[in-house]
Amino acid sequence: MDYQVYTLPNGIRLLHKHAVSPLAHCCFIVNAGARDEAPGKDGLAHFIEHLLFKATERRNTEQILNRLELVGADLNAYTTKEYTCIHASFLKQHLERAIDLTEDIVFHSTFPEEELVKEKSVVLDEIASYLDQPDEAIQDDFEDMLFKHHPLGRNILGTADSVSALSRPDVKDFVAQNYNTHQMVFAVLGEYDFKKLVKLAEKYFGHIPENARGKNRVKPHINPSEVARFSKPISQTHGVIGGQAYASCDKRKNGLLLLNNILGGMGMSSRLNLQIREKYGIAYSIESNYSTFSDTGIFSIYFGTDTEKAERAVKLIHKELKKLREQKLGTLQLAQAKQKFCGQIALGEENRIGLIIAMAKSLLDFGYVDSIAEVFAKINAVTAEEMQDIANEIFDPARLTTLLFEPND
Q1: What is the mean pLDDT of the chain?
Q2: pLDDT reported for residue 1
Q3: Structural domains in the chain (count)
Q4: What is the pLDDT of residue 166?
Q5: What backbone torsions phi and psi does residue 377 show, to the nearest 5 degrees?
Q6: 29 and 178, same domain (yes or no)
Q7: Do 152 and 288 share a structural domain?
Q8: What are the tens digits of pLDDT across the range 31-66?
Q9: In Å, how far are 180, 188, 279 from 120, measured between CA atoms?
Q10: Does 36 share its domain with 182?
């Protein structure tokens, strides 16, 4: 078996992947993110992620930060639309120190009022900095268009107004409602005996009271496609074209992942890069992305170019999408695409912290983790006919939304 799992009586799951290395990595993932916020509480999940590092019943901010940094370890966290993740990398002898700190900040943070005030200022600066990056900001505005009037359309950071209005009761209520022990995974990648890991998990997480509150997530409907343009104080045009796609549990996901990689995925040999950047010299930055949620997904193409070239860039993008809809991949093309994608996945496993986080998410979402051989088998099972059917559905011009940020001078 490529990994081992143990479930504590309170529902928290321990996941271990053995790896021979002086370094080890761990993560604690909670199935709670921006889409779980109540109306008007935008940015709350991300705000809580910040506050977890501020004070617990046993430690102040300095003690929290020093607990791992004093032994040369790295501690960090992030929030998505559906998850909150705390992760650490450290020399393997410091595992118990990492588990102790993780348990403390997740389950014993006190959220003191003075820290809320200070951290609001930090998050407001983060929002301002983010808005100064049009290539980042346009992605959030695009998702807001796709998921209009739905929690998935919310900016993870929130807005200046929503963050300023957050209170300590908001924080404590969100944690109580959404930090469900049956929706938590603690994962470790390192050279450890699994029985020892189980004992440590029982020692630090076994006493946590069970919280089995269910989720109340509503699947978004597909909004009509639209084209929107906004003037911004920027020097070039930024654009996103895309629409809703398959959820993480959809069997067609693998075909779309493969299509996305052909179109504008990793590397310089993608179709969009070769045709639009290399052949015509139009866009310095161009890429496509496919991300999944529990009940839907997003396919999108991002580009940045000089304003006078933007219209042509949009036409060339649609030309490439049309090719994939109308022209079935040949046997050699399909084989090469699969070989390239499988190679990239294998290389990605060298990012050990990324690997253990991905495994934890898979266990949380599906209850299992595919081995790399099983992943390759699913990719290699995709047919050219399936990919063409997917292209005709997802790349249908009638369901593609376009958002452009244009210079205002």
Answers
A1: 95
A2: 55
A3: 2
A4: 97
A5: -65, -40
A6: yes
A7: no
A8: 999 999 999 999 999 999 999 999 999 999 999 999
A9: 25, 32, 47
A10: yes
Mean pLDDT for 325-339 is: 96
- The token pair at 63 is 């003690």
How far apart (Å, rounded) are the C-alpha atoms in residues 178 and 382? 37
Q: Tell the burial category of 24 from Cβ atoms under 10 Å away from its Cβ (0-12, 13-18, 19+).
A: buried
Residue 352, CB-side half-sphere exposure with 13 Å CA sphere: 18
Q: Where are the alpha helices (DSSP H) in 132-264?
A: 134-146, 160-164, 168-178, 194-205, 253-264
Look at residue 14 and give its three-state secondary structure. strand
Say if CB 144 and CB 175 are below 8 A apart: no
The tens digit of pLDDT for each residue in 168-226 reads 999 999 999 999 999 999 999 999 999 999 999 999 999 999 998 878 899 999 988 99
Token digits of residue 372? 């790399």
Show the domain range for 378.
Answer: 227-407
> Given this model, what pLDDT does residue 269 score?
85
| Pair 29, 357: CB distance under 8 Å | yes
pLDDT score of 44: 98
Single-letter amino acid, residue 136 = E
pLDDT at position 339, please? 96
Interatomic CA distance for residues 34 and 41, integer angstroms: 9
Cα torsion 110, 112, 118, 124: sign: positive
Q: How far is CA 116 from CA 53, 241, 256, in A?
A: 12, 38, 42
Rounded to whole angstroms, the Cα distance separating 295 from 325 reads 25
- List, as one string, the DSSP characters of 161-187: HHHHT--HHHHHHHHHHH--GGGEEEE
Question: Do 27 and 187 meet the contact criterion of CB atoms below 8 Å apart?
Answer: yes
Q: What is the pLDDT of residues 362-379, one digit of tens each?
A: 999 999 999 999 999 999
Answer yes or no: is 218 within a domain: no
Residue 48 in tokens = 């809580």
| CATH number (domain holding residue 28) | 3.30.830.10
DSSP-assigned beta bridge partners for residue 232: 407
Average pLDDT over residues 110-139: 93
β-strands 184-190, 13-18: how paired?
A: parallel
* Rg (the chain; Cα; Å): 22
Instruction: Locate 143 and state its tokens.
Output: 């998702």
